[in-house]
UniProtKB/TrEMBL annotation:
Cellular component GO terms, alphabetical: extracellular space; plasma membrane
Protein name, entry field: Lipase I
Protein location: Cell membrane; Secreted
SUPFAM superfamilies: alpha/beta-Hydrolases
Keywords, ordered alphabetically: Cell membrane, Disulfide bond, Glycoprotein, Hydrolase, Lipid degradation, Lipid metabolism, Membrane, Secreted, Signal
Domain (Lipase): residue spans on this chain: 39-334
Function recorded in the entry: Hydrolyzes specifically phosphatidic acid (PA) to produce 2-acyl lysophosphatidic acid (LPA; a potent bioactive lipid mediator) and fatty acid. Does not hydrolyze other phospholipids, like phosphatidylserine (PS), phosphatidylcholine (PC) and phosphatidylethanolamine (PE) or triacylglycerol (TG).
Any GO BP annotation: lipid catabolic process
GO molecular function: heparin binding; phospholipase activity
Domain of life: Eukaryota
Gene: LIPI
Reactions performed catalytically: 1-hexadecanoyl-2-(9Z-octadecenoyl)-sn-glycero-3-phosphate + H2O = 2-(9Z-octadecenoyl)-sn-glycero-3-phosphate + hexadecanoate + H(+)
Family membership: Belongs to the AB hydrolase superfamily. Lipase family.
Matching CDD domains: Pancreat_lipase_like
Length: 376
């Protein structure tokens, strides 16, 4: 009986010493209203690893020491959200963390800057992106002192979070390993010079997914490679009527996040084709992967980094951005298995007719009006 009581006391002592899980800031419309009169900025760094996959812990302890679960030899993925006028927790957050940890044994740092993003004044949130980047740079300097490496840092920024990632990269002169921009915000950033937004010079490798270029996202290419699913404007499965409420506003914008997660979690290969325009892509003019030196055409998602060296060489030698297109369906996991094979077929068919015409001295060209989707 005494032994049992002793063990119970030990368990109770351990549970008392264990810090509670960190939670993403719980804010609301009231906080957006308060921000009009009393603007505030607060940043919390939430660490997840395979040792604490569901219970976030503070990256740094109160005495500024590094959390024991952070492994400086492993990759560190920084997840940075965007504008949060309603103050709610991003719906994709926990699932994103789970999928990343299933993919690899890594450190995941969720950057909670909700108190700074929760405001009715979008322009104020835009100004706060610079402040967040400066604050993050101080935390990063501390990590470097503990033995972490910029090469191992992968920033995944959503909307305004993409530009925060770019500003962090600029502070470190482009020496961070990778930045992935998930539909980087367009308002207040479109048309800005490279110093005022995310740019391919901000990291060793920058990949960008555009899904709402005529709304909340930015149209211009920003990275070593820019993906434009379904042309980058409207996404299948998203509401077409304003009467759908908030989903009408955010669905296209958030699709970049869900495509990235689907590429990680499923067997979908989001093969994308380099092209001048979505129109050329749709007519089957851009199914050639020869530019990628024996590799397949690039795939959207976490594995895009496999094409890093080719894409970097391409932009250094020609100064041309690589813009690629693909089509998806409207429901998770979004992959369209048939489209790529059809445009490859059309490409081969066009080459065949071209060879036949040359052999017979006949001028024959496959009509460019043939559209792949008419064969679906």
């Amino acid at each position: 009986m005494r032994v049992y009581i002793f063990l119970c006391l030990m368990c109770w002592a351990r549970s008392e010493n264990k810090a509670p899980c960190l939670e993403f800031s719980h804010l609301s419309l009231k906080d957006s209203f308060r921000d009009l009169f009393n603007p505030q900025m607060e940043i919390s760094l939430m660490l997840y690893t395979r040792k604490n996959p569901t219970c976030a812990e503070s990256l740094f302890e109160k005495n500024d020491s590094l959390n024991i679960n952070f492994n400086t030899s492993k990759k560190a993925v920084w997840l940075i959200h965007g504008y949060r006028p309603l103050g709610s927790t991003p719906s994709w957050l926990q699932n994103f963390v789970r999928i990343l940890l299933n993919q690899d044994d890594m450190n995941i740092i969720v950057v909670d800057w909700n108190r700074g993003a929760t405001t009715f004044l979008y322009v104020r949130a835009v100004k706060n992106t610079r402040k967040v980047a400066v604050s993050l740079s101080r935390y990063i300097q501390n990590l470097l002192k503990h033995g972490a490496s910029l090469d191992n840092f992968h920033f995944i920024g959503v909307s305004l979070g993409a530009h925060i990632s770019g500003f962090v990269g600029k502070i470190f002169h482009g020496r961070v390993g990778r930045i992935t921009g998930l539909d980087p915000a367009g308002p207040q950033f479109s048309g800005k010079p490279s110093t005022g937004r995310l740019d391919y010079t901000d990291a060793d490798f920058v990949d960008v997914i555009h899904t709402d270029t005529n709304g909340l996202g930015i149209k211009q290419p920003l990275g070593h490679i820019d993906f434009y699913p379904n042309g980058g404007k409207k996404q299948p499965g998203c509401p077409k009527s304003i009467f759908s409420g908030l989903e009408f506003i955010k669905c296209d914008h958030q699709r970049a996040v869900y495509l990235f997660m689907a590429a990680l979690e499923t067997s979908c290969n989001f093969i994308s084709f380099s092209c001048r325009s979505y129109k050329d892509y749709k007519t089957g003019l851009c199914a050639d992967c020869a530019d990628f030196k024996g590799k397949s055409c690039p795939k959207l998602g976490y594995q895009t980094e496999l094409w890093k060296d080719i894409l970097k060489e391409r932009i250094e030698n020609t100064t041309l951005r690589t813009t690629v297109f693909l089509d998806t369906v409207g429901t998770n996991p979004f992959c369209n298995h048939h489209y790529a094979s059809i445009i490859l077929y059309l490409k081969k068919a066009r080459n065949y007719f071209s060879l036949q015409a040359h052999a017979n001295h006949v001028k024959y060209k496959m009509p460019s009006s043939i559209k792949c989707n008419s064969l679906l």
